[in-house]
Amino acid sequence: MVAGLPVAQAGVAASVATTSRQIGQSLGVAVIGSLIASHPAALASAKAFQTPARLGWLTITGMRVAALVVARISKAPKVIRPPS
User: Which domain of life is it from (predicted)?
Assistant: First the structure.
């Protein structure tokens, strides 16, 4: 993302990318945490915690696989740099 922009905009692009990544991580933790906490039995014992935790891990794995598929099939634009 940053490589395709003029040098003057590289700092802004890097900060937008970092902010987006941090927001995504925060939302991911919140969603998976609420998914696990939505099973009241998970709070009863360690054994009961395994089922919602497994569901959380499967959700994360599915999202990662989907992201890898999208990254694999998408084509990055060619970066054209003016001669310096």
Answer: Bacteria
